[in-house]
Design a protein that fits this description.
This protein is α+β, with helices and mostly antiparallel strands. It has helices at about 5-30, 35-45, 55-65; strands spanning about 65-70, 75-80, 85, 90-100, 105-115, 120-130. A hairpin with a 3-residue loop joins β4 and β5 (about 105-115).
Length: about 130
C-alpha cells in the first residue's frame, strides 16, 4: 500500500541530497583554488608565529593533511628568494591539497621553527605539474 504523495517526497529528498552534495563539492573546489596569500593568512591564523613544533604537528594530524617531511635538525630551503636561504633550525612540510585543474596542482605548506621549536615563518607554495 502506497501513501499519497510518496513519490513526490522521494523526488524532493533526492533533489535535496543532490543539491547538498553539489554545494559541498563547490565549496571544496573554491577552497582548493584559493590564492597562496589567502591560504597563508588562514594557516597563520591557525598557527600564529611562536606556536610550538608539537602544536603544529597536532594541527596537521587533526586536519588530516599529509605530512611530507619533518626535521628537528635543519630548516627548510626557502625558494621565495634567490638564491634560496634556509629558514629556521627545524621544519614541517605538508601537502594540504592536490587536484587537477587540468594539470596536477599541489598546495604545500612549510612551517619553519627556531632552535627552541617556536614557529618563525610559514610558506605556502602552489605548484603546477604541466607534464
Amino acid at each position: 500500500m502506497r501513501l499519497p504523495g510518496w513519490k513526490m517526497k522521494n523526488k524532493l529528498f533526492v533533489l535535496f541530497v543532490a543539491l547538498f552534495a553539489l554545494f559541498l563539492g563547490w565549496r571544496t573546489y573554491i577552497y582548493l583554488r584559493y590564492s597562496e596569500s589567502l591560504v597563508y593568512n588562514r594557516v597563520l591564523k591557525a598557527t600564529p608565529l611562536g606556536t610550538s613544533f608539537d602544536e603544529v604537528e597536532r594541527l596537521i594530524r587533526e586536519k588530516e593533511w599529509r605530512l611530507v617531511f619533518s626535521s628537528r635538525t635543519h630548516g627548510f630551503s626557502d625558494q621565495r628568494v634567490r638564491p634560496p636561504k634556509t629558514v629556521g633550525s627545524m621544519y614541517l612540510r605538508t601537502s594540504v591539497a592536490q587536484y587537477y585543474d587540468p594539470f596536477l596542482t599541489d598546495l604545500t605548506v612549510y612551517w619553519g621553527f627556531d632552535e627552541s621549536g617556536n614557529l618563525i615563518d610559514v610558506w605556502v607554495w602552489k605548484t603546477v605539474d604541466a607534464l
